[in-house]
Amino acid sequence: MTGPTGDRKITNAKAAAWDGLGSAYWNRAYDGGPSPAACAQYLDGTARGQRVLLVGASTVSLARAALDVGAELVVADFSAVMLAELAVVLPGGAEFALVDVTRADAPFDATFDLVVADRLLNRFVLAELRAALRTLTAAVRPGGLTRLSYRSGLYERDRVVLAEAARRGVLTTVFDEAEFDVDYSAAAPWLAAVLPRHGDIPMAALIDFYVARGREHRIRPGELDELAAQVVPPGVHYETAHPPVPGQGDDFLFELRRLT
Ligand SMILES: C[S@@+](CC[C@H](N)C(=O)[O-])C[C@H]1O[C@@H](n2cnc3c(N)ncnc32)[C@H](O)[C@@H]1O
Asked: pLDDT tens-digit profile of 231-258?
């Protein structure tokens, strides 16, 4: 496993978006979750000493909650800045891995009792989504769980941005309806007029962040089961469920219990 400033070279251009914001994403008056109830749901059944892989160093409340239940925590992220800034605030005991989970050479073996991430799946295009599902489910031991929360359909923020794009006659520059993908990068010149705030992050920094995040797929009902079925290796079987995340509107938890 690599350390917070590890030796695995990150080539994914989207990592720059997260490096650019770093801890400003979660410590500037942002209370976007996951809430304590959501953290409890994601970690339900996790016992002291179990191995938990959290993907997303920005999800600080979940990292803390995992340590609180006594898990042996590994936090993976493709942003060296996010990992380093989480390391500063965690009470210790976690291991850090600089990893792009959309890459085929992600280093995890099937030893984790739980692999968990909060709305990571919403940050991908379809090819990335398939690759990440392959990597994350492969990290779980037989009998273990993968729990990946996701927002179903368009975000509220997307609706506002798409409405403004339609008003300007440029909807297809930010929304690929056939793929069901959004990409705010073409909206940079006018995004400030409609973009909701994120904590107290300055608007210019927020726009740079969304532009650098690039294209993202929005998830349709039933789609994740189909994608996961496409990437399961022969002889491996999962049982899946999609419980709603408590108190978080359109968010669900994609839960895969590895049977064999
Ligand atoms: C989990 S997602 C969504 C944000 C989440 N809802 C939260 O509260 O933090 C954001 C985190 O995932 C990381 N991330 C995004 N894509 C990644 C990838 N392909 N591999 C590893 N980490 C990734 C980002 O650097 C960021 O720290």
From this structure: 998 899 999 999 999 988 899 999 999 9
Q: Is 75 in the pocket of ligand 1 (CB under 6 A)?
A: no
Q: What is the tens place of the pLDDT at every residue in 63-121? A: 999 999 999 999 999 999 999 999 999 978 899 999 999 998 888 999 999 999 999 99
Those residues whose C-beta lies under 8 Å from the C-beta of residue 215, and which sit 6 or more positions away, are 125, 176, 181, 182, 183
Instruction: Please work out whether the CB of residue 102 comes within 6 Å of at least one atom of ligand 1.
Output: yes
Residue 139 covered by a domain: yes
| Domain-embedded: residue 4 | no
Identity of the amino acid at 96: F
Model confidence, pTM: 0.95
**Do 207 and 182 share a structural domain?**
yes
Whether ligand 1 lies within 6 angstroms of the CB of 198 is answered as no
User: Which CATH number fits the domain that encloses residue 73?
Assistant: 3.40.50.150
For 154-210, list the strands marked E by DSSP. 175-176, 181-183
